[in-house]
Amino acid sequence: MNNKQLMQHAVATHKETTASAQRGLQAVEQMKEIQSSTQAALREQGEQMRRIETDMDKMGEDLSYSERILRFMRMCCCFSFFCACCTEPNRAEKDRKWRGPSGSQPPSSYSAPQQQGPPKKLTSAQRKQQAAAQAAAGAAAYPGVHTDGLAGLGLDEEAGVIQSETKQQDKYLDEISKGLDQLKMGAQRMNEEIRGQEQQADRIGQDAVVLHDKLRSVNREGFKRI
Asked: Could you tell me if 28 and 174 are in contact, meaning their C-beta atoms sit under 8 angstroms apart?
């Protein structure tokens, strides 16, 4: 195999490497899209759980008010409608302590992880400046393949192809690295959201037990009044 054939083989290998890097970048972009849709679903699930917590909090307040009304009715029946100690409970009074001293915290105790807004749009001049800076940084970080002396052997065309393919590979690898960093940060945000939702699920379960007991208590008191 002569020098020409060796260089042609190197060019073919370089092109295959470039194609592999491009496929790797496409896979990273697909993973970013999947992660984005998963994050959106998690956020919606978290919002739904927070709405459930809010509804259960309102239900607890209503049941606590019902308990006060039933106590008021019992006092009125035992004493007199005009007894000074029989003060009708004020509906505006919010009984936030329906969970009890050892109960779970109200929904406001958990806030969803702050979501980053869309990146600020750059002007055309800013994009060109950013691209030039990235190109300069890439050139400084990777000088390319040394092909000095190949032109004298009549292999300048193959050497140019190798240089071009190498630059393209470097660009793909840089984009893959940035994409992986974004996936890592996205995974951390998803982990935070999942931990928060686990806490929400625990609180909802605790609140459900308390509300069930309160509802049974109100029903018993209500039947006593019939």
From this structure: no
